Amino acid sequence: MTAPVPLPVSAPVTWPDALYDTLKRVGIDQVGHVPDAGHARLIDRCEHDPGIAVTGLTSEEEGVGLAAGAWLGGQRAALLMQSSGLGNCINAIASLAEAGQFPLLMIITMRGEWGEFNPWQVPLGRATRDVLVAVDCRVLDVHRPDDVADTTLAAARLAFDSSQRVAVLLTQRLIGTKAFR
Amino acid sequence: MTTSTLTRQQIAGRLIGTDPDLLVVTGLGGTCWDASQAGDRDLTYYLWGGMGLAASTGLGLALSRPDRRVLVLTGDGEMLMGLGSLATVARIAPGNLAIVVVDNELYGETGGQSSHTAGSCDLAGIARAAGIPDSRIVSDAAGLEELAGAVGELGAAVRGPLFAVARVPGQLSGPPAELPPRDGTYLKHRFREALIGPHALR
């Protein structure tokens, strides 16, 4: 198989720091995640913050329970995942988060939509938006680094102040295509 | 496996009915009925859905309130659907969390089909191997007393997480004559108001 043509390398990445700062600004106390390369810097920032309890999950659906439990106890959680992980959460989003009108803030790194080289990532990447809408989630896209903070802030307000399930999609154009070589 | 002399009502009654401060998350079906029959209370969040999520919901709650004791009371089928969360609970190791599985070895809400625990599956062994050293099997009143004592001292004299299988082979729990509230939003609001105070709703 021919090696993929490398996409242009972008400028130094600072948007994960803007995202971290926004999570702090909106009072996030807990972060649940299944590790993802696009979230690596954000996860690292959160793990070094004694004010954020970071929970590594075996599957993304645990994060929906985690976030509901945090809210019951008076805390705010954010859930970090890759678009392929969304598929693991559907019943949890619908039959726990929506049924109880829990706030749910999901920060989702996209795969399969922009210069993807791994065909196994494409099907759920393509379905991500439709699936989110089908389970009554609000969807906010971020294409440019400058929009990360504002969009995350808006999403957090929608989630925690208006009791909505909200997904911020960090598009593959923003995060860059994963390069294996 | 030895026989058990426990009843479902005994388990929920002893663990929840006598402990008003305990924060409780139930599974759906049988343990929801058990918990409500032990006395409906504001600080019980009944799951009527979200199968597999009781332990992870309890984890988020336990992390948010390290000053309070949290009990997840769930069934074997519900726990089997969320086995990964045992590894997560072990990894985070909240000292104030107990997970008690009321294990009747069957799926009571769907016709009584046998579950994996009717065969070779040992949930306490799985929890121990996941990294929860205090994983017990309880099958009589003395064991239940010990378990209740440990839940009562969670976070203080007893460092969680604590995992227990309370064995009730073949025992079904039908819906009580008076169902517990089933509106998840109402249950959420009343739980938060009872725990956090009136400003939780403002």
- The tally of beta strands of chain A, per DSSP, is 6
Largest sheet of chain B: 6 strands, parallel
What top-tier CATH class of chain B fits best?
Alpha Beta
Unreliable parts of chain B: none
Q: How much of the polypeptide of chain B forms β-strand, as a percent range? A: 15-25%
Instruction: Give the terminus-to-terminus CA distance of chain B.
Output: 52 Å
Query: Helix/strand/pairing class of chain A, anyone?
Result: alpha/beta
CATH topology of chain B: Rossmann fold
Strand order of the largest sheet of chain A: 2-1-3-4-6-5
Which residues of chain A sit in consecutive blocks of at least 5 with pLDDT less than 50? none
H and E order of chain B? HEHEHEHHEEEHEHEH
CATH architecture annotation name of chain A: 3-Layer(aba) Sandwich
Helices and strands of chain B: which structural class?
alpha/beta
Range of helix content of chain B: 25-40%
Output the radius of gyration of chain A.
16 Å
Topology (elements, then pairings):
The complex is a heterodimer of chains A (181) and B (202).
Chain A: H1 15-25, E1 30-33, H2 40-47, E2 53-56, H3 60-72, E3 77-82, H4 83-86, H5 90-98, E4 104-109, H6 122-134, E5 137-142, H7 148-162, E6 165-170, H8 172-175
Parallel strand pairs in A: 1-2, 1-3, 3-4, 4-6, 5-6
Helix pairs in contact in A: 1-2, 1-7, 3-5
Chain B: H1 8-15, E1 23-26, H2 30-37, E2 44-45, H3 54-64, E3 70-75, H4 76-81, H5 83-92, E4 97-103, E5 106-107, E6 113-114, H6 123-130, E7 135-138, H7 141-152, E8 162-167, H8 184-196
Parallel strand pairs in B: 1-2, 1-3, 3-4, 4-8, 7-8
Antiparallel strand pairs in B: 5-6
Helix pairs in contact in B: 1-2
